[in-house]
């Protein structure tokens, strides 16, 4: 997509978010649009930064560094979210660059992040990724283990967990999973719920998402296998 069509898609998505919010009598201001810019070049991202958009998502630390170290200097409004798996050897870099980590999914990682926060004094928002469909190939905390994991994060590692994130099973109706994540967040007193992507963000909003993560319908198809 060219810059003009990205801006047009952006407007359309913002309108759709407003419409969905209205349907369930929610304020669209409480629904954050995360522009997922992974695998997209800087020249596609700049138009959104220019109109003042703040929240961007990347899935790989290395790629994010190559694009965002410079972009963040030029556009200090940027709030960068990590939405891909985080290896423990990348934690240091991730904490340097990202403002929000959405993919805390195991204790070893909680420990590493806590170490790094102590050393740097940084304070990113942290979400726990939940393996909402209990899929073997997906990372995330199993729903029934969430409470215990959350307590561990808080008590043993002093992490300030703000919310939950999930990626429902592909090729299935996401709504059931969205509602499951919503209920988990409610039960555990977590305010932020990151769910819904290009194909299902409107359903996610109806199910209580506080953030939707949108890549392809904003920037176009990604070139990767
Ligand atoms: C890539 C990605 C998205 C965006 O997906 P689209 O279908 O392109 O909107 C959202 N969330 C996560 C975790 C992703 O990895």
TrEMBL record:
Record bears the keyword Magnesium: no
SUPFAM superfamilies found in the cross-reference section: PLP-binding barrel (SSF51419)
Modified residues (N6-(pyridoxal phosphate)lysine): 38
Any GO molecular function: pyridoxal phosphate binding
Pfam families in the cross-refs: Ala_racemase_N
Coiled coil feature spans: 7-34
Domain Alanine racemase N-terminal, first and last residues per copy: 15-221
Keywords, alphabetical: Coiled coil, Pyridoxal phosphate
Required cofactor(s): pyridoxal 5'-phosphate
Alphabetical list of InterPro entries matching this protein: Ala_racemase_N (IPR001608), PLP-binding_barrel (IPR029066), PyrdxlP_homeostasis (IPR011078)
Family: Belongs to the pyridoxal phosphate-binding protein YggS/PROSC family.
Function: Pyridoxal 5'-phosphate (PLP)-binding protein, which is involved in PLP homeostasis.
Name used for this protein in its record: Pyridoxal phosphate homeostasis protein
């Amino acid at each position: 997509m060219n810059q003009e069509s990205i801006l047009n898609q952006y407007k359309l998505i913002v309108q759709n978010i407003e419409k969905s919010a209205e349907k369930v009598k929610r304020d669209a201001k409480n629904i954050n649009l995360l522009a997922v810019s992974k695998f997209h070049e800087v020249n596609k991202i700049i138009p959104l930064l220019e109109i003042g958009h703040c929240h961007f998502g990347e899935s790989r630390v290395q790629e994010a560094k190559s694009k965002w170290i410079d972009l963040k200097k030029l556009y200090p409004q940027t709030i960068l979210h990590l939405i891909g798996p985080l290896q423990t050897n990348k934690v240091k870099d991730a904490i340097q660059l990202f403002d929000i980590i959405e993919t805390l999914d195991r204790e070893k990682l909680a420990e590493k992040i806590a170490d790094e926060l102590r050393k740097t004094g940084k304070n990113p928002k942290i979400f726990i990724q939940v393996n909402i469909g209990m899929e073997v190939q997906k990372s995330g905390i199993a729903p029934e283990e969430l409470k215990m994991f959350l307590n561990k994060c808080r008590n043993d590692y002093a992490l300030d967990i703000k919310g939950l994130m999930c990626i429902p099973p592909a090729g299935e109706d996401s709504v059931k999973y969205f509602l499951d994540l919503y209920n988990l967040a409610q039960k555990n007193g977590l305010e932020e719920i990151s769910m819904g992507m290009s194909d299902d963000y409107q359903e996610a909003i109806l199910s209580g998402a506080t953030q939707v993560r949108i890549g392809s319908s904003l920037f176009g198809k990604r070139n990767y296998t």
